[in-house]
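Dear U.,

For the methods section draft, I wanted the exact inputs and outputs in one place so we can describe them consistently. I've listed the two proteins in the order they'll appear in the manuscript figures. Please don't edit the token lines directly; just add comments below if something needs changing.

First protein:
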Amino acid sequence: MARQDILHLLTALPGEYVSGEKISQQLNVTRASVWKQIKLLKEEGFEIEAHTNKGYCIIKTPLSLNEWVIKQMLSTFSLGHSIILQDELPSTNIKAKELAREGGSHGEVILARRQRAGRGRMQRGWESPEGGLWMSVILRPKLSLADASKVTLAASVAIVDALAELYQLQVGIKWPNDLIYNGHKLAGILGEVVGEWNSVQTLILGMGINANFPREKLSMATKPTTLRDILGYEVDLNKLTATILRHLENQVADLEKNLFEELCFNWTARAVGLGSEVKVLRGEQIFHGIFHGISPDGELLLSTEQGMERFSAGEVQLRSKSGQYF
């Protein structure tokens, strides 16, 4: 008997009690077995009320990651219908790449409650304590290599729109892959191609969101923030996962339809520092100029004394009101 079978019975009649006898009869197990599984569900974070004469009633699903809960909340066609959830991984992107090489399907999602060796761009470490949303998605989109690089831009818009929908937060995008709230880093994205694009056409999209923990758990050097610090409460990571996947699926579908102008417009509308002075670091070179958005190829546009410069790689630093860059 799987615990999911009990959950299906309890959620079939929301708010109503289901007797232990009915559950045991339908699943052909003892009532003692039912009680044991209910106990395990409670340990997973499900709030289940037990009444001697009535049976069991599910009151609340857990806020922490739970595969069954995510799947009940999904409204996607392909993303998230196969989910791997681990308590701990070195990195969800590393696991996703292993699965992709073994034939992992488009839309497969890898989640970890914590990462030992999470990574950001340029091989930098990404702190991933328990309570965050650490997720990678295997994507096999119908895109050219040039257009595949735009998937990270699409993911930025998807996450920003999910946060706005769920929590009414106005989060900004800092080129190329950071999400910023009031000058503090809330999330990051890492896209990695697996194999030769012309033959494999597989992209691993990693997303990390600081969620249900205090920012003091992270290095203050990165000027982080978390959803818990911003909102004052812990969020439902399952609903957040399902909502991001829905927005991401829509954004990738638009890219496959060559609707990049619309993505470019949506990304620019959410960009941090547009029209402001920024500093772009590319290797040991430093470029100063005014940030003018992104080109049709997803490159950063910087107005400098030498004219309009384009950057397909690098790191942007924004100038704050105090004159400091972050």
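Second protein (the one for the lower panel):
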Amino acid sequence: MWRTPPSTSPWRPSSPTPRGGCIVTDPTPFSNAETEGVRAIWQALGLPGIVDVHTHFMPRAVMDKVWAYFDSVGPLVGREWPITYRADEDVRVATMQGFGVRAYSSLVYPHKPDMAEWLNGWAADFAAHHPDCLHTATFYPEESATQYVSRAIQSGVRVFKCHIQVGDFTVLDSLLDGVWSQIADSRVPVIIHCGSGPAPGTFTGPEPIEKLLHRFPSLPLIVAHMGTPEYTEFVDLALRFDNVRLDTTMSFTDFAEEGAPFPRELRPRLLDLRDKILFGSDFPNIPYGYVHALEAITRLDLGDDWVRAVLHDNAARLFGLDA
């Protein structure tokens, strides 16, 4: 099992690590060696960089609480989840730029009412000051949701984030009807954490999402984490609905494979979904290095064209990024 060793600091020395039958040196986070390792992967594929649709930049107080949660208990009881890229915001932004990430997101999400609109204001300001960041917004089932989602769309939001597990709400809540209808009309993608991993929530799983899609079949959903652990069901939804996509966040890594392995018999269907899978990392809140997140994609051995589509082309097309 490859993961960051328990420590009060995410920085660690390089060390030989078995992966895929060979020995690889994992570079220290925030090091020049790490940056060179990340860039070598996409440069070898002839790409102009990476598009990482699933990254987290949040108000400092919110991020501190998220890190405290991971430090104390985390989403997996009895399993350590060190934050590899714990650093000040400007360091994390510079790290993304150094890696050659052409575009990333500031996925924010509320866990209670009267929080989403404030987060949207922060995320809009963050995007205004960081041109590589896709203008991100979020929502929560509350009376004001239709209005602030409308304002976000009018202000040019590029992607929404919806976290069913943390928010502890159903996507079928009537307070979200106006939200979903606007999103379906505007075609602004929603990165939605709706699978039951890493720990199930009251309203997680594929069934509510399928019901939602029958009501709003044109909804542009990006199912986070490949729908972990309900991979088969969410792959089916992506094949059935034109605007349903999947992001790779944490999927296929050693950390994820230990707890919720992606079914080997399902891998051939990933080829059928080549144009509907987007790379996501969960940076900075990952318990391993960024290089490993990329290697987890390349070692699937689905061909360079597939990897190019996942690491860059699919998201670049979806978000209208110039080549």
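Candidate sentences for the figure legend, describing the second protein: The CA atoms of residues 223 and 246 lie 5 Å apart. The radius of gyration is 18 Å.

Thanks,
Y.
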